[in-house]
Amino acid sequence: MNIIRMTGGLGNQMFQYALYLKLCSLGREVKFDDITEYDRADARHIMLWAFGIDYPKADRDEINEITDGFLKLSHRVRRKLFGRKSLEYHERDCNFDGQILEKERAYLTGYFQSEKYFKDIEDKVRSAFIFSDRIWQGINGELKGRMEGYLTRIQESLSVAVHVRRGDYVTSSQIYGGICTESYYCAAVKHMLTFFPGAAFYIFTNDPEWAREWVPRLCGQINGITGDRFTVVEGTREDTGYLDMFLMSRCRNYILANSSFSWWGAWLNPSPDKKIIAPSKWFNNQDCRDIYTEDMIKISPEGGLVKE
Q1: Looking at the domain assignment, is residue 135 inside a domain?
Q2: What domain range includes position 243?
Q3: Phi-psi label, residue 178: left if phi above 0, alpha if psi -120 to 50, beta otherwise
Q4: In a domain, 84, yes or no
Q5: What is the pLDDT of residues 186-239, one digit of tens each?
Q6: Is the pLDDT of residue 285 over 90?
Q7: What H or E segment, with its residue span, contains residue 107?
Q8: Of 5, 52, 212, 271, which residue is least crowded by CB atoms under 10 Å?
Q9: Residues 219 and 84 in one domain
Q10: Arithmetic mean of pLDDT over the chain
Q11: Where is the domain boundary, 103, 128, 153?
């Protein structure tokens, strides 16, 4: 049996679940460890339920057995004498690691952020990631009405989803900073307008107050465009972020942040005609070549179009 350690927010959970589907297609028995990371008070929310997904869960004994993590005295003594006999395998880096698909019994840790893991079962992945009606349950009428209003406008316009991630991306600038710069977004909007002069831009962000102040500054750098072409999507929180992804997936075109969340927002749109603009660099500390799909248009932090 393989166990996948679930980690991160919704976008990362989706990559891990897509790997699960691939391993199952290879005839493997697979379960998730959703205890180790999510059994903490400050843990992110598990949101796969938004797709109606009920995944198989490993219990603590299964996790301890495969990682040699039992805390009984006899196990601690043995580890002290002979070393740990864990079957944990961590992906090599942020690119596709073929060994992940070859493991017959392992505790798999990583983010698995590449379409290469599941491209050949794309139909299964798309069938799994269809939003359930449950996304409308448990939210108040005001928020539901606001989201439905955004949805109507998105579907009736030449909509472009623009993802601007702040929060931890600002505080962890050594990894994420200097990539999705103002120059990047300015160039991305200009480039999108060459395809769709009448485009309407919907900004998805975890800092809407900042985004409202940013829009006039952005418009000042782009001739002939005014603030009424931009809508800052507001009302969601960390625990209702699936609503942002739902709306994002209904947009027609995309300007991504270096984030798995907007990656999936764009991927869930099956249209072969969609345009996707992505930052030419994903992280500062790794060369993430395999995060990109063939249809992505890359723009540098300086605002230049990057050609392969």
Answers
A1: no
A2: 140-306
A3: left
A4: yes
A5: 999 999 999 999 999 999 999 999 999 999 999 999 988 999 999 999 999 999
A6: no
A7: strand 107-109
A8: 271
A9: no
A10: 93
A11: 128
